[in-house]
Design goal:
Helix content is 4%, strand content 44%. The chain is mostly beta strands. It binds calcium ion.
């Protein structure tokens, strides 16, 4: 049932307002009921004011919690002491405060004492166990914006020298790192930033110091001619070169160097530099993290987004702290999940004499596939066709075999042959095919 309410007010809101206000109720069947409400004049003299609160004393333990320390003498010679922070006050040093309390005790003014530490967050952290992330920054440098959209602006920034995780055991931690050769050599204030979180994620801690001296060169530094080792993957470390991914894959780089790597440099291009499809270089150093308790090995996880379908090339360049660099290259294919994609088609052995096995990978694992293998001679004439089905196909299909005989069972001569694999999904009919060549040696 539709029910609507319509309130209409006449144009003249004068003394006769009661004649002009109608409340109409109507339903979907056209039933209407009009109510003329009885109106009363009203005047507004502002919102009511709350009565003033009585000045009541807070309980003792909630008073002056921001004060580092204070006391109050209570009846029956009870001394209440709240001790919130071990830090001197301007008005009274901690030493003076404790002397004052001592004096009260000596003078016999105090029979009992309550020492309230409930607002004291202190302690030495010896019960803290977790992971600490440390970042070391070089001295600040002045940089300028490009000024392509807005006027050129000068700003200060710091290059990170090291970023890594270290385990905290009973409140204690230590970590090593190598200062890269490419820092600016003048002495100045570097910065160390620390953040720790406990193993059970219930507490954290942080701190920084912007007064650590960084600069100069080390003449006795260890020799290092070995560039960093890099292994590239897409999404996870089971990825194979040339594999298929979706449109938003994550680049994973496992990196090792005996002396650690350089995160970013004063020289353009010294850092962890990514080049996608031979396009411009991107400094992705901020996405690198040294492995826990190690300055030598670490992982880069860099999300790529909105990639076009097709084959992409990716190059990653990494510098160690001794100015040795290395590059690693990977190719991958971005495919729409609605298309059938075939990759890594090959036959083994090749060349072959008696039989060869054909294998390929695709993006439709788990689906039922119809597969047709066709063999052509070097003139393009079809010599053999083999068809079959694969139920719940794996990512890789390697069950196709050819014995080198044509459809009449005759052994084919030595030479080059072309084969085509045609794959169709029985789920949605998506299909594709791929050619390659094989050689028979008799
Ligand atoms: Ca090295």
């Amino acid at each position: 049932m539709d029910l609507s309410i319509n309130l209409s007010i006449g144009d003249n809101l004068g003394d006769n307002i009661g004649d002009n206000v109608n409340l109409t109720l109507s339903d979907g069947q056209g039933f209407r009921h009009v109510v003329k409400p009885e109106l009363k004049p009203m005047s507004f003299a502002g919102f009511p004011k709350l009565p003033g609160l009585a000045a009541a004393d807070s309980p003792l333990y909630l008073r002056n919690n921001n004060d580092n320390y204070w006391f109050e003498q209570l009846p029956s010679q009870l001394l209440y002491v709240q001790f919130n922070d071990v830090a001197n006050k301007e008005s009274q040093s901690l030493k003076q405060f404790s002397e004052q309390i001592q004096q009260l005790i000596i003078e016999g003014e105090v029979a009992d004492m309550v020492l309230d530490l409930r607002h004291n967050s202190g302690g030495d952290g010896s019960d803290f166990n977790g992971v600490l992330t440390a970042t070391i920054f070089d001295k600040p440098v002045k940089k300028q914006t490009l000024g392509t959209e807005d006027p050129v602006m000068t700003y200060e920034s710091r290059n990170a020298i090291f970023r890594g995780d270290v385990s905290v055991k009973n409140g204690l931690y230590e970590f090593d790192f190598i200062v890269p050769k490419n820092i600016s050599y003048n002495y100045g204030d570097g910065k160390i930033s620390l953040y720790a979180i406990s193993n059970d994620y219930t507490s954290d801690a942080s701190g920084s110091n912007g007064k650590i001296k960084i600069g100069g060169t080390e003449s006795n530094s260890l020799m290092d001619d070995l560039p960093p080792e890099i292994s590239l993957f897409m999404n996870d470390t089971t990825f194979m070169f040339g594999g298929t991914v979706g449109r938003n894959p994550i680049l994973i780089a496992k990196i090792f160097d005996e002396n650690g790597i350089t995160l970013s440099g004063n020289e353009i291009g010294q850092g962890v530099i990514l080049t996608l499809d031979k396009d411009s270089e991107i400094d992705v150093s901020n996405f690198y993290q040294a492995n826990i308790d190690s300055y030598q090995s670490g992982t880069l996880s860099y999300p790529l987004s909105d990639l076009e379908e097709g084959t992409h090339q990716l190059l990653l360049k990494v510098w160690d702290t001794h100015n040795n660099s290395s590059e690693s290259y990977i190719e991958f294919v971005v495919a729409d999940k609605n298309t059938m994609y075939i990759q890594n088609l090959l036959n083994y052995p090749n060349p072959f004499r008696d039989e060869t096995f054909i294998s390929f990978e695709h993006n439709r694992s788990g689906e039922d596939l119809e597969i047709t293998l066709e063999i052509f001679d070097s003139y393009g004439k079809i010599v053999k066709q083999i068809s079959g089905y694969v139920k719940h196909s794996d990512f890789r299909v390697d069950s196709l075999k050819w014995d080198g005989r044509n459809s009449s069972g005759e052994k084919m001569r030595s030479g080059l042959y072309i084969y085509r694999v045609f794959v169709r999904s029985l789920r949605d009919g998506a299909k594709n095919h791929k050619y390659d060549k094989m050689v028979i040696i008799n």
